[in-house]
Amino acid sequence: MSVQPERERVSEAGCWCCGGTFPEAELVRLGNHPEVGVCLRCARWLRRRAVQRFDERHPSPAARVRGAVQGVRAAVIRKGWHRRGALGAVLRWIDRHLP
């Protein structure tokens, strides 16, 4: 009788935000709570929400600019422009490079 070696498994865990399953390399762990894992997409979304909340509590010219960018982003999503062919591709590219 021969024993087949067990295949090396990639450790996957769930995102606490969206519930998706991701490899460990694509999760961000919280410092004092390593059991909490958030995928990179949700971590980016959470960062935007944290900056928005900070800007609300500490107004500044930069906060107003970021607020205007967020307003434009919300309008684009509401109108569905981010899903339109070449225009959508350009808008998504811009979104990846904005705060």
From TrEMBL:
It comes from the Bacteria. This is Uncharacterized protein.
